[in-house]
Amino acid sequence: MTAKFFKHLYFRLPNIIKLLISVVFIMTLFGIIIHFVEPRQFPTIFDGVWWAFVTAATVGYGDYVPLTSSGRIVAISLILTGGGIIAFYISSISSETIKKEHDLQHGKLRFKGNNHLVFIGWNERTRQLIKTVTDIFPEVQIVLIDRTERRIYYQEFPVHFIHGDATEDSILDMANIHQASRVLITADDSKNERQADNWTILSVLAVRGNNKDIPIVAEVLSKVQVENALRAGATTIISSNDFMSILFFHELSHKKTAAPFEDIIQILNQKQFSHTKCPKELVDLTFLEASSILLKQGHLLLGIIREKECKIHPPTGFVLKEGDILLSLLDW
C-alpha cells in the first residue's frame, strides 16, 4: 500500500521535479559505487557524490580522480549516463521557462494572487486605465480577460492576461475571481450596441454567480439596458454614450468666441457618468449628506432616478430611499 502510494505520488509530480529526483538518485548511486570501489580515494559517500556531480556536469575540478581501472570504468559509465541526464535536466528547465513565458503571453496560465483587479475586455479605454492604475498604484495586480486578443506582452502592459470568454465559469476561475477585489467590464467594440450590452449583462451574471459580494463596474451603451445590468448584479453602471453625447452637444453649440472643447475633454476624460444603486448606508440620508459622503469617494452626485423619474439636483433636504439609483460623475 505504501509503495503504491509513493508511486502514485511520484507520477503526479511535475516532470521537472521527477527529472530532478532522477538526477539526484543517479548521482548518489554512482557516489556510493565509487566510494566502495576506491575507498582510499573517496573516503566518504559524500565525497563520491560530489565527484559524481562535478564529473557529470563536466565541471572537472580534479580534486577527486579515480585511480584504478575499476574506478575509471565507473567514471566512464557515469559520463555516458549521468552527463546526459544532467544536460537534459538543464535543457528542460530552459524549455519550461520558455513555455511558461509563452503561456503567460497567450493567456493560458491561472492567476494565483488575491485582492486583485479584474478587467474584462481589451480596448483603448482598458489600455489607458491600465496605464493610469499602474502609474498611481504600482503595487496593484491586474488580471485582464479578453477573448479577441491572442497575445499581450507583460513588458508592454503589466497585467496577467487570460484568453477566453468571461461568461464562462472556467475562465473566471482562472482569474481567481473568488479572491478579486473589484471587476470592471467594458463594452465590446466589435459588436453593435445591443449585442455589446447583452454580452456585458451575461458577464455580470457570470461574475456575480461566482462571487456574490464583489463590486462590479459595467459599461453599458444603451440606457434601456441599465436596469437589466443592475438587476444582473452590477454595482455601478458607466454610461459612456452619455458622456460622448454631451461632448458632441458642447462642440455643436459653442460659440466661436468660446474656448475650444479640448479643455472640457481634459476634465471629462478623467470622469464618466455612473448609475449606482443607493447603498444601504445612504438610505434615509438627505441629498446633501449623501453628496458629502460620495464626494470623499470620488463621486460627484448629480441626482437620482426614482420609479423611472429622473430628479437632477433635488433640494438639499431631499431624502434618499432604498431602490433609488444615484446619478454621478465618477473619477477614473
Blueprint of the fold:
Elements: H1 2-11, H2 15-37, H3 45-56, H4 69-105, E1 117-120, H5 124-136, E2 142-146, E3 160-163, H6 169-174, E4 182-185, H7 193-210, E5 216-219, H8 226-232, E6 236-238, H9 240-253, H10 262-268, E7 271-277, H11 287-296, E8 299-306, E9 309-312, E10 325-331
Notes on the structure:
It is a single chain. With 332 residues, this protein is α/β, with parallel strands linked by helices. The chain folds into 3 domains: 2-105, Helix Hairpins (Orthogonal Bundle); 107-238, 3-Layer(aba) Sandwich (Rossmann fold); 272-332, 2-Layer Sandwich (Alpha-Beta Plaits), CATH 3.30.70. It contains 11 helices and 10 strands. It has a 10-stranded mixed β-sheet with strand order 3-2-1-4-5-6-7-10-8-9, with helices on both faces. The longest helix is centred in the N-terminal third of the chain and has 37 residues, at 69-105. The two termini are 60 Å apart. Residues 257-262 and 264-270 have low confidence and may be disordered. This is Potassium channel protein.
What's this model, at a glance?
With 332 residues, this protein is an alpha/beta fold. It has helices at residues 2-11, 15-37, 45-56, 69-105, 124-136, 169-174, 193-210, 226-232, 240-253, 262-268, 287-296; strands at 117-120, 142-146, 160-163, 182-185, 216-219, 236-238, 271-277, 299-306, 309-312, 325-331. It has three domains: 2-105, Orthogonal Bundle (Helix Hairpins), CATH 1.10.287.70; 107-238, Rossmann fold (3-Layer(aba) Sandwich), CATH 3.40.50; 272-332, Alpha-Beta Plaits (2-Layer Sandwich), CATH 3.30.70.1450.
